[in-house]
Write a structure and sequence with these properties.
heterodimer; A: about 625 residues; five-stranded mixed beta sheet; 27 strands; about 25% strand; B: about 180 residues; mainly alpha
């Protein structure tokens, strides 16, 4: 194990210094931050030594807010301003929320993503999540008394593009450099597999507060290869609470009359559910404006009331096995993740279906954050002799709308990312000069049953006879699982491309304006920040380029080397300018000018990787 | 090294078999393929470049995408067969070449009827086994056309019937889903 380097406080960071990477589990009910310290991943506690931060934000007038436990304590007294389970609303429109009346919030049907009316004005779910993330960032900074280099943030494997984009936006808003979004079950597998030195095929069953994921992974020599994934991004422990609350109301005839009642009955249901994990009979007890609701609930009754929810998860497990083209016998173990897997019936049902004893020797609340921390540590380059590699997949198919409201699938689900796939289309009218593309995600054949991600147009196609144009649409999904789309008419070379974020995601301008609103940043600060960031980027780039030259300059001809050196000089010189855009342009010129060198280096390392292996396997 | 030709020699432009340093044959050592894939991704995956310069990150993304593309094509026997045909000038063009041997068409129709009538997992399972067996013999013929006879057009025609069968397998899965959710 490598020794931890400790530098003097205030000492200038050298390029090979240890960088701080953190892992954040941004959960429906609670969130955690973890980091690798002295080679061991651990969750970072708050000042009161608690690692869990309840995902709750209470908005008070005049920009005041309470976060975590403090917010939670006001949940019953101030329900409409105390936002819990905000993850359920990330990247979601009003029409996506099936049981909006059960929440004690004032929803606003804002375009793209819904928002919430609070005592401190209108808040988007992205802003609420950013408060939680910023609190965790602060906790990490306090722990290390240093800046955080970057964060790995976990998302449910079954999150679609809109939900992932919203999460990344929230992280940006919270001032975090996102190293990577990774899937929660994959993170759990990482923590679990590395701890237990496991090899073989494992399932990860992750039932959280508001989401359910199932992932099937093959673990071999540090490679975590996801074979398939499935789930439901709107099914979790909250739904068990709601089913129990509905049952208790029906059985007693009590009525929910106010927002406080809504909140009180859900809080009571959750308490009752949790107690039923260790006891056979529990009294359901809630004080409502209609009088006290008291009801004796047995574990059998609770299980019967929620059986269909558990059954839904099992169907998804079977589907994931089929997608992975494996049978139950191939599964070596199943890792249980998420607080909701504490329910004995869930453990039992999963164990019976997969014919194995569920593995739960790591704390199901912490395991996702720990895995994210391990990956963050790897990404920031602290784990140089580690050979960890995550090969994850895209959970839901991506396609575009074709004639008649049908979906033409371009990237099928469970493709290893990053990936790029293309399909050719043509025009259907003579002289057609534009093509409208509607990008959707989902498994259904009809556009109306899938999630609409974005609309965009390819314009300027030269007029041709119908069917003569050849328009290649390329979908690229990056390692975060985020999509960008490009369209090109092959004959004329007319091109257009977008990052898919308009209908649900936020534009950079919106993020900037939110930054200003929520953190009261003055315009001048914003410019100063942009300038500082662009200068930092020059240093970062030049450091990295110098390191690359030190190692591989021999690959370059003299003129090419001179050119790179010249571009570096120009970038460094641009730092003296007071113009962030000019500095960014110089950095981009350096980036462009070193691409060929980067490609040469890549070719070289691939040749080495392959030749090494060939000798071994001969 | 004369780096002026560096980009032309780029592994990005080599074919899938060359990229994975594997012989251009249909018969393939799956274990070796998987091992090479992981090795290549260990080298090229963007995760290795998150603290490096922008150019390296872009190149990593391009290579990682290209490696996954090649892996997928080599891994799936039907795609691999089709790719070999194309590399050797025998185009598949499935949408233009819809002519099939008549006995295969009759077989197809029988299968479709069986699927429509199937209302138990047992029946569906049986049908699936039958299609699987038919696929296996078609692949065996394909391998001989590709690796022994080097008869690319015959191989291409075999590939086209196999494409029909794989599409039918998707329908079988759909029917199973329907039954499961019924």
């Amino acid at each position: 194990m490598a020794l931890l380097q400790i530098s003097e406080p205030g000492q200038a960071p050298d390029p090979h210094a240890r960088r701080i990477g953190i892992g954040i589990d941004l959960g429906t009910t609670h969130s955690l931050v973890a980091s690798v310290r002295s080679g061991i991943a651990e969750c970072l506690p708050d000042a009161d030594d608690r690692v869990i931060l309840p995902s709750a934000v209470r908005y008070l007038p005049q920009g005041r807010r309470e976060i975590g436990y403090q917010a939670l304590s006001s949940q019953s007294s101030d329900p409409s301003n105390t936002i819990v389970s905000v993850k359920r609303f990330m990247g979601r429109a009003m029409k996506d929320i099936a049981n909006a009346e059960e929440f004690p919030y004032q929803f606003l049907d804002t375009p793209g993503m819904l928002s919430l009316q609070t005592a401190d004005g209108v808040k988007s779910p992205v802003e609420v999540s950013a408060e939680i993330l910023a609190t965790l960032r602060q906790r990490a900074e306090d722990t290390f008394a240093d800046d955080i280099y970057g964060a790995v943030i976990t998302v449910p494997a079954y999150f679609d593009d809109a939900q992932r984009q919203a999460t990344k936006d929230a992280a940006k808003l919270a001032g975090l450099h996102v190293l990577r979004l990774i899937n929660e079950p994959t993170a759990a597998a990482l923590a679990y597999g590395l701890d237990n030195a496991s090899e073989g095929i494992y399932a990860v069953y992750d039932l959280g507060g508001g989401t359910f994921d199932i992932s099937v992974l093959r673990l071999s020599q540090g490679v975590f290869e996801v074979l398939s994934t499935g789930g439901d991004s709107a099914l979790g422990g909250d739904d068990y609470d709601r089913a129990l609350a509905r049952y208790a109301l029906d059985a007693t005839g009590k009525k929910v009359l106010t927002d406080s009642d809504k909140s009180a009955v859900l809080v009571a249901a959750r308490r009752c559910k949790e107690a039923l994990s260790s006891e056979n009979n529990v009294v359901f007890d809630a004080l409502l404006s209609d009088g006290e609701l008291r009801l004796n609930v047995s574990r059998e009754v609770f299980e019967a009331q929620t059986q269909s929810l558990t059954q839904t998860t099992l169907s998804a497990v079977k589907k994931a096995l089929r997608d992975a083209q494996i049978t139950i016998e191939d599964i070596k173990g199943v890792v249980m993740v998420g607080g909701s897997t504490r329910m004995p019936m869930v453990q039992k049902a999963v164990g019976e279906l997969l014919h194995c004893q569920p593995l739960n020797n790591l704390n199901p609340d912490e395991v996702v954050a720990l895995g994210a921390a391990l990956q963050a540590n790897q990404l920031v380059g602290n784990n140089t002799d580690g050979n960890l590699l995550l090969l994850d997949v895209i959970p839901l198919s991506l396609g575009i709308e074709t004639m008649g409201g049908l979906v033409e699938r371009i990237v099928p689900r469970n493709q290893t990312i990053p990936t790029a796939m293309a399909q050719d289309f043509t025009t259907y009218q003579d002289g057609q000069t534009a093509l409208a593309l509607h990008i959707v995600q989902g498994e259904r054949d009809l556009v109306k049953d899938c999630r609409s991600l974005a609309h965009f147009e390819l314009r300027g196609i030269p007029p041709m006879a119908a069917g003569a144009a050849r328009i290649r649409v390329t979908f690229t999904v990056d390692a975060d699982g985020l999509l960008s789309v490009a369209a090109k008419e092959i004959n004329s070379g007319v091109e257009s491309q977008i990052e898919v974020k308009p209908s649900y995601g936020l534009s950079d301008e919106q993020i900037t304006s939110m930054l200003q609103d929520s953190f009261h940043t003055a315009e001048i600060d914003k410019q100063a920040r942009a300038l500082a960031e662009s200068r930092l980027e020059v240093d970062r780039m030049c450091l990295a380029t110098n390191a690359a030259l030190e190692k591989d300059a021999y690959l370059l001809a003299e003129a090419e080397l001179e050119n790179i050196k010249k571009l570096m000089k120009l970038a460094l010189a641009s730092k003296s300018l007071d113009d962030a855009i000019a500095i960014e342009n110089a950095t981009e010129a350096l980036a462009k000018g070193t691409e060929a060198f980067a490609a040469l280096r890549m070719n070289e390392s691939i040749r080495q990787a392959l030749s090494g292996k060939t000798i071994e396997s001969l | 090294m004369n780096s002026g030709q560096g980009l032309q020699q780029s592994l990005l432009s080599s074919n899938d078999f060359e990229l994975f340093n594997l012989p251009l044959t249909f018969n393939l050592n799956r274990q070796l393929l998987d091992e090479r894939w992981k090795n290549l991704q260990r080298t090229a995956h963007p995760d290795n470049f998150s603290v490096q310069d922008t150019a390296s990150q872009r190149i990593a993304m391009q290579y990682s995408v290209r490696i996954n593309e090649a892996y997928l094509r080599l891994k799936l026997p039907l795609k691999r067969a089709a790719y070999l045909c194309e590399l050797n000038g025998a185009s598949i063009k499935a949408e233009e070449n819809t002519r099939m041997p008549s006995e295969f068409l009759i077989q197809q129709m029988q299968w479709r009827e069986q699927l429509e009538d199937a209302d138990s997992f047992l029946e569906i399972g049986k049908l699936q086994q039958e299609v699987l067996a038919a696929k296996e013999s078609a692949f065996a013929r394909c391998e001989i056309f590709l690796d022994v006879d080097k008869h690319w057009t015959n191989a291409a025609s075999e590939v086209r019937t196999l494409m029909f069968m794989e599409r039918f397998e998707v329908d079988i899965d759909k029917r199973r889903d329907q039954l499961e959710n019924a």
